[in-house]
Amino acid sequence: MRTKIIEKSTSMFLTLGFKSVTMDDIAEKMGISKKTIYTHFSNKEDLIEASSFFIFEQINKSITKIEEKKLNPIEETFKIKEVVSHFLKGEKTSPEFQLKKYYPKIYAMLDLKKREIINTCFKDSLERGVIEGCFRKDINIDMVSKFYYLCITGIKNNELFVSEDINNVMEEYLEYHIRAIATGQGLQTLNKILSK
User: Fold this and answer.
1) Fold of the domain spanning 51-195
2) pTM to 2 decimals?
3) What is the pLDDT of residues 3-55, one digit of tens each?
4) Is residue 182 classed as helix, strand or coil in its secondary structure?
5) How many C-beta atoms surround the C-beta of residue 57 within 10 A?
6) Using an 8 Å Cβ cutoff, are 173 and 155 in contact?
7) 3 state DSSP class of 161
8) pLDDT value at 183 more than 90
């Protein structure tokens, strides 16, 4: 039952927002009593934390599966974007912004985990890209991964991109990012991906 509650509440939080969804809303949507939810979660913040880490772990597992395929690093970057977009397809409320504003402790824990992933998987991808000739040899891998992190998190800023489709913004950013670090060979791969 705990997992079902997490799955349903995650979907509702992403669609309607952490602040607006109540425990009553979740209980009603699931056809269970609020008391049942409270047997698994001490309060709403506890449920929000579980839901936030649930979606994070789902995305992380999918990214790991993509990494195991050892695709071309540019293709890998776009595949990871597709995975993230798939999991957040119902997102209409800028959940990261709401977490940061209303649940800063949960946001800080998630942010730390996100940085860890970028420091491992994204740096590995950049290093592989340099070795395979997709990315320029003179790039500062540490600096580029920090730029990537800043931009990926900044894209979620609902004040800057309030009327934009987040998938389009992400696509534009990835093209911009890869053009900045790619070799001629890398640009050929990018153009093939963009033409599909």
Assistant:
1) Tetracycline Repressor; domain 2 (1.10.357)
2) 0.81
3) 999 999 999 998 888 988 999 999 999 999 999 999 999 999 999 999 999 99
4) strand
5) 11
6) yes
7) coil
8) yes
In the numeric block, the tokens 């093209």 are attached to 175
CA distance 196 to 191: 9
Residue 142 CA, distance from chain mean position: 20
Long-range pairs, 190-196, Cβ under 8 A, ≥24 = 190/74, 193/74, 193/75, 193/78
Main-chain phi, psi angles of 35, to 5 degrees: -60, -35
- What gap in Å lies between CA 174 and CA 81, rounded to an integer? 9
Query: 33, 26, 24: which is closest to 9 by C-alpha?
Result: 26
| Residue keyed to tokens 């800028």 | 94
What are the angstrom distances between the C-alpha of 1 and each of 6, 24, 39, 41?
Answer: 9, 16, 10, 11
Place of tokens 């669609």: 15
In this predicted structure, the answer to whether residue 71 has a pLDDT above a threshold of 50 is yes
In the chain, where the domains are located: 51-195
